[in-house]
Design goal:
Elements: E1 14-15, E2 18-19, H1 20-30, E3 37-40, H2 44-53, E4 62-65, H3 75-80, H4 82-87, E5 90-93, E6 97-99, H5 101-108, E7 115-120, E8 131-135, E9 138-143, E10 153-161, H6 165-177, H7 188-194, E11 200-204, E12 210-212, H8 216-231, H9 235-238, H10 240-248
Parallel strand pairs: 3-4, 7-11
Antiparallel strand pairs: 1-2, 5-10, 6-12, 7-10, 8-9, 8-10
Helix pairs in contact: 6-7
Length: 250
């Protein structure tokens, strides 16, 4: 992502005149999610400052600093938040995933399961996609190295942990980090290890708008995605004032 992320974390890149993080917070608020913790690492102070500038949408959002961000993959962020994951139902969201509010709405309406991975489908997948293999709504495997004949979709970076799912996942994170290669693993490798037990499900969000920002060209594509759902006149994202009123009522 250089030079775009030389001084800023990806979550603060501006898309359609707002930081990615602000779009995420707006989508969460539109679905009644008001208890939010942002795990920070690189650019932690910038995130804190940005939240203070976001007005009502950033009010009450906590930050939790991950001191291992320079030596660990995203599993380190889950580790520092493990007590929160055990405490209540959680929406676990990657910091570089943009999604329209309807995606979370659909995920939250999916059948109850300890762990639910939101997925999308497309004609072909590349090496960087976090691919999934499924049987009905049951997740069989998840990872970037799945063979084409095993691949049924891709994770969009939004996972629900409900009931005992948060504790099961947190225990899995701790177990993974005990391995010699644990620091270099994605947190979704923990979900891959949990999948054979049968408690991991998928929820398809096909037809809804989302985007992941991994490369500079993705910023322009994300701009198109956001402009598209604004043009659809979703009141949760199209105008700041209705959202502010919704936040005050949460």
């Amino acid at each position: 992502m250089l030079p775009l992320t030389e001084f800023l974390p990806k979550c603060l890149l501006r898309v359609a005149e707002r930081p990615v993080l602000e779009w995420q917070l707006r989508a969460l608020a539109a679905n009644g999610v008001s208890d939010v913790t942002v795990v920070t690492g690189f650019g932690a102070d910038a995130v804190d400052q940005a939240l203070r500038r976001m007005g009502p949408v950033g009010k009450g959002v906590r930050t939790l600093f991950n001191p291992f961000y320079a030596v660990a993959d995203n599993i380190g962020s889950c580790f520092v938040a493990r007590d929160l994951l055990r405490a209540s139902d959680t929406v676990l969201l990657n910091g570089d995933t943009l999604f329209e509010p309807a995606i979370l709405r659909r995920a939250l309406r999916s059948p109850d399961a300890p762990i639910t991975v939101t997925i999308d489908r497309k004609p072909a997948y590349d090496a960087d996609d976090m691919k999934v293999s499924v049987e009905g709504t049951r997740l069989l495997a998840i990872g970037k190295t799945l063979a084409p004949e095993e691949t049924d979709g891709e994770s969009i970076g939004l996972t629900l942990l409900r009931g005992r799912g948060g504790a099961v996942f947190a225990d899995g994170v701790e177990a993974c980090l005990r391995r010699p290669d644990g620091l270099r693993r994605w947190y979704l490798s923990v979900i891959n290890a949990l999948a054979p037990a049968g408690g991991v499900r998928v929820a398809s969000i096909e037809g809804l708008a989302w985007g992941e920002i991994d490369y500079p060209a993705d910023v322009a594509r994300a701009e198109d995605v956001v402009r598209g759902w604004i043009a659809a006149d979703d009141p949760a994202t199209a105008a700041p004032q209705p959202l502010a009123e919704a936040l005050e009522g949460l």
